[in-house]
Predict the 3D structure of the following.
Amino acid sequence: MTTIYLDNNATTQVAPEVLEAMLPYFHDLYGNPSSMHTFGGQVGRRIRQAREQVAALIGAFADEIIFTSCGTESDNTAIRSALATFPEKRHLVTTRVEHPAIHALVARLAKEGYRVTELAVDGAGRLDLAEYEHSLTADTAIVSLMWANNETGGIFPVEQAAAMALNKGILFHTDAVQAVGKIPIDLRQNAIAMLSLSGHKLHAAKGVGALYVRKGTRFAPFLVGGHQEKGRRGGTENVPGIVGLGLACELAASRLEEENTKVRHLRDKLENGLLTRVPNRQVNGDRGSRLPNTSNISFEYVEGEAILLMLNELGICASSGSACTSGSLQPSHVLRAMGVPFTMAHGSIRFSLSVYNTEREIDFVLEEFPAVIEKLRALSPYGEVGDAICATVEG
Amino acid sequence: MWEYSDKVKDHFLHPRNVGEVKNPDGAALVGNIACGDALKLTFKLDENGRIKEVGFKSFGCASAIASASALTEMVKGMTLEEASRITDQDIADYLGGLPKEKMHCSVMGREALEKAIAHYKGEPVAEAEGKIICECFGVTEPEIERVVRDHDLKTVEEVTNYTKAGGGCGNCIETIQEIIDRVRAQPRRAPARPRLTNLQKIRMIEETIEREIRPSLQQDGGDLDLIDVVGDRVLVATRGACASCAAVHLTLKDFVEAKLKELVTPELTVEEVTP
């Protein structure tokens, strides 16, 4: 059975070119870039090149890039750095729909005594910028808003929000893990102070990420150790990962056009096709401002994990915001924040595409998917037929 | 990804007895769509008071659907007395086990069965009464007490796995801990004989037949095969010399059934079926 991978917001395949670029750094060129000898030193040059490649994708200077181990580390570093360098400020602003890397961190900070404002979103997952501006105070150490939502693909107006924060002299961080490589980002054009990105979401390997820190931003390291990354992040560099991330960023820059034409076309075809073929469904998120690769659709009266396992039998990989897939017993915090009714939230499916998906794959999903929902709805006690009988049983 | 047994996957992908029995003798709906799972169970009895037809409809994850499907297979042919003795552990065992976070799926099966039987008898359901402890999932005090007792649960997390209670906002976690402490402080009623799960019972029956019964029969040129175990009824088919023996019913009663009563459990009866 062939795999149809529509779960690229979870992770992506390493691009073949990227893998090839990484391999020599596992065997022939295994030196430590900090070493004095040429054998190690030549690796250091390759890291510098990767730093330039990453910087180029987001319109940054090379020395504004700090390599980390993942998006979560970048997020933790950014927030903790702001709190450490503005110790008198005890307030943070974020949203209710952030990735757990931020969500769980601010919950921890609240326990440590910080004041946290988690901004609400509307039914489409949009922020109210007036409410946002109102939340910024002299006591606010940092704002952290995600650029694009991992579950719905919804894009926040982070550039506008960053300008508003700058006006009040507040640091602005964005978790751009889902946005980098999918939509154009140019840090020369905005006031964003810090930005997190992750390798494995853009066809590099797992275990490598980066934090952009704008020149002149106060910074305190999260991992303290050696002098790597100019003392901003201790720990011997993940050389193959960093080399791969550099090339992946270069590839992403060259594929941005394709991402926003071909991938967008496939996503729209999938979404519109499912909306036509399956009744009682809704798209979750801001269709007007969304990543080109993501579609989140809820199917009423059926449960997401059951849908996923039936898709799994067909070789189709997707994900769900249902309670059962998380083990948390409650559906996704993003869908709850958006006020998606429970009848819909438990049956949400996220499809996330990449440049490697094909028209044929989408055709196959469109052909097979409606039968999965039909089968599960036939099992479900809810829906028109079931409701009448439930009433008699309850009576 | 959850680690589901092959049996769970089989019952999920090929659910048995889906639907609703027409003019049911007993019916129940437990759970609700907001909680993420719900189960509707309907059954009809035959003239001997055994469950003849049973149907389910389930809104829920793979293990909820599989638990419901398994339950319907288990109760077919049982009297209500037999069916009411099925525990959530029996359902999980029948499926080759459930991930611990998914035990609430089998609990939901047991609750639906109890409620459907109560509906048939016209009795109020004990579980439905009692103070609601977990507002998020509508779990009552007696329900929590019962799983703590039945499964010897020690932590709130375990209670959440079995009932979902405490898995939402978390406001009731302290109360759940108090219930656990209170129930565990009570002296445990030690049952005279540990009750067997269906799976244990079937295994023991198979072992006893293999070790104690077949060798004797085979010495006389006879044999028998275990066909099915329905509640406490052991259905067997006779083979070889036994199949044509006029006294076979005596052998079954005085030897086979006596051995099984002695070595497995005294409730067992042996019946011959013609395949």
